[in-house]
Amino acid sequence: MFSTGLTPVHLAASEGRTGVLKALMAAGGQVNARTRDGYTPLHAAAHHGHHAAAKTLLAANADVTARAAHGYDK
Length: 74
Known about the structure:
Distance between the termini: 20 Å
Number of domains: 1
Order of helices and strands: HHHH
Number of helices: 4
Structural class: mainly alpha
InterPro entries: Ankyrin_rpt, Ankyrin_rpt-contain_sf
Radius of gyration: 11 Å
Protein name: SFRICE_041668
Strand content: under 5%
Pfam families: Ank_2
CATH topology: Serine Threonine Protein Phosphatase 5, Tetratricopeptide repeat
Number of strands: 0
CATH superfamily: Ankyrin repeat-containing domain
Keywords: ANK repeat, Repeat
CATH class: Mainly Alpha
Mean pLDDT: 92
Shape: globular
């Protein structure tokens, strides 16, 4: 994890790497991990337009109600 709270799951989601996402989650990566600002891997996938990554996260029970610290979905 980086000092910002970004995890490998966030990074894989932001790059649309669904195979990597699946491997990370199978190894215990947290689908609902949050950065210091409350940004989740699902936010990262959606923000960068990676629909397949978002679907992968949703299939793993990503929290669709999660909000960033700024009070809105990023």
